[in-house]
Structures are given as structure tokens and as C-alpha cells.
Amino acid sequence: MSLRFYDTATAQVRDFVPLVDGKASLYYCGATVQGLPHVGHIRSAIAFDQLTRWLRYRGMQVTVVRNVTDIDDKILAKAADSVGAEPAPGVVPDEPWWALAYRFEQEFAKAYDTLGVQRPTYEPRATGHIPEMHALIAALIERGHAYPALDASGDVYFDVRSWQKYGSLTRQNIDDMQAAPDAGPRGKRDPRDFALWKGHKEGEPETASWDSPWGRGRPGWHLECSAMVTKYLGTEFDIHGGGLDLRFPHHENEMAQSQAAGHGFANFWMHNGMVTFEGEKMSKSIGNTISPTEMLEQASPRVVRYYLGQAHYRSVLDYRPTSLQEAASAVERIDGFIAKAAAKAAAEIDTGTAAVPDAFAAAMDDDLNVPQALAVLHETVRAGNTALAAGDNETVQRALGQVRAMTSVLGLDDAEDAASQAGPADAALDALVQDRLAERNAARAAKDWARADAIRDSLAAAGITVEDGADGVTWSVA
Fold it and tell me: Where would I find the H helices in 115-198?
């Protein structure tokens, strides 16, 4: 099967043929760094990380760009709130807007790294690309698709009625759209016109504005992405990605301004679904939210990545109180087989050369069907465990190679598993458990079965699972 992905612009699953043979170019929207990452940010990053890994597994050279929006109304508002603020969690009193943005950018980087999201090829900041934005605005004005504000605000707007295709990405009629909320309507030809450049306003920091042919100001949100993706991937590229919530107005506006400037822009638009809480939209106001940090307090990074990456990228991912427990059980089954098989296999398997099963590849080729790919992974684990019990070492070794190849493609091997980061506490626990197992072995050697069973039961009561195998005794935390 050839690679096929769903394209939001055409509402079809289409064959993916890269613009340049053997290469793929991907841009997906990163964070507006106004606060800590939420679960939607991380789900999106994991979905496009899975896509990147699969394209690379299929032999393509992939260039990935993920932007950082480090100048925005929300960032300025958050920084303004910090002036004279009392010290509180997550608040730095009198913090400049650029320092706040950088601080939260580092929080995003830490979350991505912890959950095994590979670093993009380029990760540009909006504030580093002001000249490219000026050039794009000038081109749009020259083509008749943008105009300086009709008042003295210094704003520059995109004229949505000048572009007949406006609304095509989300299949909306322009007359049914609400007014663009990024600036007041006073200086606009049409309330739906959106800001390309925002004139400097009284009370805003001078550092949050740049000289331009239209006066001092700063870029509009939508303009930033168009300018950055063009710089790094060219005027036409393979895939533009992001969360479903960005389709309108952000991606609609990106596509309109870029195509109006004469750019082919994205060949595919791919959007990942949202995360809900027991079937409802997450909302801080009603308290049904969970953050990546809270998830990582409950489970290891590998488990959190498994949970956030297990659904089809276009579907809704629903969080329930038992979700992480279920994901942990799935990861433990995989890891349990890998540990046993690695000890049994005659030679170490190189995951760089081991191939994934054909059924796994077919699922990933079919619009990145991760749920079906995971079904193949777990079936391979079951077959491997059956082979272990039968002493079929050849099948065990083949299954081990396939399992490792699949977990690598899914990024599970790159998440920082706390269980693998053994520290002093882990070493102390292992020493205590080994002492108890030594006592149990002595009791069994003396045929004191009651004593041996009592030791095993006491360990079980403490959450320690003991397994007796042909190759000795192993233990794990239940």
C-alpha cells in the first residue's frame, strides 16, 4: 500500500507523493509561549512526531519545522499582570514579556524531551523573522490583498473579500463568518479582515514593537507562521499540521494570505483531534482538566506517551481516571516480553535493521492508523510470549526484533522512563528485595514451603511481584 493521508483541504484521504522524491517537508504549529503546556499541545506534538518517524522509517529525508510564537497579545497581557504581583506559583513579579516567553518556551522543550518528541530540524521564533514578515505584507499590498488601516492605528489588514477562495479550508461562506477578533473594526474595510501588522498602542512595552514601513508595531499571529514556513521550507511544501482548533481562523488565514501572495503553500493539511475529559471539553472553569505535569506525577513518561499517542490522530482522545492505569498495563505487557525475550535470545537484536511486520506497516501507511498498528504490536507480544513458553527461541528472537522496531517507530523507546533512571532509592529497594529473595531461596532449598510462601506473600503485600522462571527469579513493582 502507498502512503495515504487525510487532507483537510480536500476532505479526502489522498496518496502522499512528496514534492521532491525521497524528501518530505513538514511544518506544524508550535506553542504560543504564554503559559505551561497543556495536554492538547503535547498530543499534537506526539502525533506529528509519529508521522515524522514513520516517514523516516519509509526512507524519506524529513525536514521538520515547528515554530515558537513568542510575541502575542496573550504574552503581553500575562507580563502586564506580573507587574507588582505578589510571588505565586508560576508567576515572576515584574517579568518582562520576552523573559516570560522564554521561560515558558523552556517548559515546552522539557515536556517534549521527556515524552520522546524529537527535536525539529528548525524551531524558529517569531521575533527573529520580522524582515520576512515585512516582505510578505508588502507583497500582499502590492497585489491588492492588504491595506493600511483606514484610521491612524498603524495596523495593516488582509482584505478577505479580495481573495475568492477565503473560507475554502473550512468550507465556510464569508458572509456567515464572525468579525475577526484581533483588532477593532474601526479601521477595517470589512469586520472579517484580519491583522497582518498591529500598530504600537499606548501602554504597550516599547520593546514589543519594531520599525516598519507602516509605523512601529508587531506582527499578527497568522502572518508569523506564513513568513517562517516560507523561509525554511519554501513557498510550496508537503504538509502543514496542527490541532483541529487551529483550522479557523489561524490556518484559514495562513492559507489565504500565503496563496494570495502567489505561494503554492501546503500540499496537505493534517489536523489532530482534541482531548476531552470523560466526554466533555476540558475547562478550567469547571475543573475537568489534567495537565501533562499531573499525568507525569501519576505515570512514567513512556506510559503518558503511550496514552497520548494511542488513538488515531484525527479522533477525539478521551481521558478518564483509569486511562493511565490502562496505558501502564499495556506498556508493562510490552516491557515484560522484551525483558524476558532479551534474556532468552541468543544475540542482541539491532532495531536499526529489524523490520516491522507487514500488517503494522500497512496500518501506518493508511493515514497513520496507530490503533491498528498497536493491535499488531500486542499480537506480536502475545505470539512472542507463547514462543517463550514453548521454548521456540527462533520465534522469540524474531518477535523481539519486530517489537523493538515497532516501539522505536512509535517513539516509546525515546520517552524518559523513570523506571530506567535508577537512583539511590531504586538501588536500596533492589538490595532489600534481593535479601528477601535470598531468604526465600534458602527456605525452598530446605523444603520449608510455608516459609517460602510467606516471604512471597509479604513481598506481594508490599506491591512486589515475584516470578519464578527457568532462568531464575525476577521481581517487579506491581
Answer: 130-142
